[in-house]
Amino acid sequence: MASNRRPLPTTRRELLIAGTLAASAAYVPTAWGARLLDAPARVGAGRFRDGVASGEPTADGITLWSRLTTDHARSGAQLIVAEDEGLTRTVATAVVGTSQTVDGSLKTRITGLKPHTTYYYAWRSREDVSPTGRTRTAPPADSDIPVRLAYSSCQNYPTGFFTGHADAAKLDDLDLYVQLGDYQYERASMPGNGRTVAGGSVDLASYRALMKLYRADKDLRELHRVHPWIHTWDDHEVANDYTDNAPAPSALQKAAGYRVSFEWMPRMTMPSERYRVYGNRGLGRMCDVFLLDLRQYRTGEGDGQPRRIAGRAQLDALKAHLTASRARWKIVGTPVQLSPLEIAGQPLNPDAWDGFVDERKELLDHIAAGGISNVVFLTGDIHVFMANQVLAQADAGRSIATEFVGGSVTSSGIDSVLGVTPTTVRLANPWIKHFNGMDHGYGRVDLGADAAKVTYRVAAIDRPDAAARTLATFTQPLGANDFTQDGGAAIRAASEGDLPAPLTPRQLRSEAARTTALKVRRQRLERVLRAHGADR
User: Fold this and answer.
1) DSSP string, 152-182
2) In three state form, how does the secondary structure of 122-148 look?
3) End-to-end CA gap in the chain
4) Angle at 46 between CA 40 and CA 52, to 5 degrees
5) How many CB atoms lie within 10 A of CB 259?
């Protein structure tokens, strides 16, 4: 990292009116914009309307992101990184170029930083200064420092407010936020009125417009601003269950969905594999986090070959990582459920690992045969909070790993779809020790030398100011490959509780206000989709 430890303006106004500092680095954000940005990057026009973000933390570096809204074909901004929130103890500056080709995204990698250290950063154009972001580098490779993660998935804009994000953003000691897919939904499902907007996002322009709407949410912007992220996609970044659709989305549509995810996320592209998102992120000796991509490499049956959900190269990479890892905890982020979910012996979700039993068996046999311990799967997709034992294929009574399925941020739960109670689900699937398809929120994971603790935090999504509460907490001792639920093993979901009391007149007025607020949220999304040809 090149560093300029020179005095900088100390207020946002001074930052805005200051002349361009000598740049310590210039960066062309992606190959898509390289031809347009072959000239040296310069600070140009534009405003920061979409917040800031950080991601991909290592012990000595971080990826920083923002976006310039400008009518100019190309522009640029200065990045300032400092040890203090006032941006006076500067450790790096950089001028980063952008263009309309990459939708105004600004992205660069800052290295040479101190391990496990909090840094602050802001971007400056000729017209504007971004909010000040906060981020943190990873612990050093030889560190046994405890690690705290949080994770979520399935944030459907029109179905509710991102109240779980508001709670997670209040954490001041988070090492990494893991987003497990369905960051945005290509269609507008309108619960409560039985309406679905026809069509949806299908091309580059409509995916970009949809992403911009999602980033307009203040709680999502704040969560990006204060924590470093890693992200993988599931299906709705392109289309629902798109690998099994007939007809399937075109290669152009899939590329558009992937591209927009890269444009708006603090993630660098790999020149040889432009759309690769799977891989490992180390956080000292305490844990590794291996993210999976379970959409891009799927294959159907043919020529006597098994159906694949991860693909040969990715599955081999995961197996090799699990074998070689010396981390105390081996975290695997899977966008879809690993453990079976069955009723009357029939899988309920063949779009998940249940539909790819050969690859699942290969992975679990590898863990069991290698005696690989302390593997924890963090899961998204299914809109249910679950805590599952992962059983050895050859010994159904032995738990060889654990799986903690995070409920959705806002997407509708599956209780009504199943038509059965959570207790019925658990009796049919005895490895499922906790099941709640009613609540919404996120998971928090505290990793220590002797145990891992997973906490589910939930909040109402029908009003933006709803307070969060703890739904359940689980403790997994090191080496146990199993867990207990703190406070007992109760699994009763809200759907099995007592009926709520009738609403009072004051509550009815409040309920009407909430309904109006959600209606406005849905109308915003509907306008975006219609403006980009959603009725085609």
Assistant:
1) E----GGG---HHHHHHTT-SS-SEEEE-S-
2) EEECCCCECCCEEEECCCCCCCCCCEE
3) 49
4) 90
5) 20
210 membership: H or E segment, kind and range:
helix 204-215
Where does 141-296 show beta strands of DSSP type E? 147-152, 176-179, 189-190, 195-196, 228-231, 279-283, 287-291
In three-state secondary structure terms, 507 is helix
CA distance 296 to 183: 16
pLDDT in tens, 86-137: 999 999 999 999 999 999 999 999 999 999 999 999 999 999 999 999 999 9
Q: Which domains does the chain have, with CATH numbers?
A: 12-136 (2.60.40.380), 147-496 (3.60.21.70)
- Sort strands 346-347 and 342-343 into parallel, antiparallel or unpaired: antiparallel
- pLDDT, the chain, mean: 86
Single pTM value for the model = 0.87
Residue 66 has, within 13 A of its CA and on its CB side, a CA count of: 32
- Rounded to 10 degrees, the C-alpha dihedral 203/208/209/210 comes to 90
Beta bridge partners, 258, equal none
Mapped onto helix, strand or coil, the DSSP state of residue 480 is coil
Q: Say if residues 113 and 1 touch (Cβ distance below 8 Å).
A: yes
Average pLDDT for residues 442-450, to the nearest whole number? 99
Cα(24)–Cα(389) distance, rounded to whole angstroms?
50
How do 441-447 and 469-477 pair as beta strands? unpaired
Beta bridge partners of 474: 454, 485
Beta strands 195-196 and 105-111 are unpaired
Give me the amino acid identity at 333.
Answer: G
The more confidently predicted of residues 310 and 303 is: 310
Q: What are phi and psi for residue 243, nearest 5 degrees? A: -70, -20
Q: Which residue has the higher pLDDT, 21 or 70?
A: 70
Q: Nearest-CA neighbor of 378 among 536, 232, 223, 239?
A: 232
pLDDT digit string (tens) for 288-298?
Answer: 999 999 999 99
- What DSSP element (H or E) covers 334? strand 329-334
Which two tokens mark 344?
Answer: 């009357």
pLDDT of residue 30: 47
> Residue 331 corresponds to which tokens in the numbers above?
């975290």
Range in 76-80, 245-249, 333-337, 502-506 the model is least confident about: 502-506
The neighbouring-strand residues paired with 311 are none
Structure confidence by residue, pLDDT tens digits, 314-357: 999 999 999 999 999 999 999 999 999 998 888 989 999 999 99
Q: How far apart are CA 56 and CA 58, in angstroms?
A: 7
- Predicted confidence band at 533 (pLDDT cuts at 50, 70, 90)? low
Rounded CA-CA distance 25/304 in Å is 52
Residue 250 DSSP one-character state? P
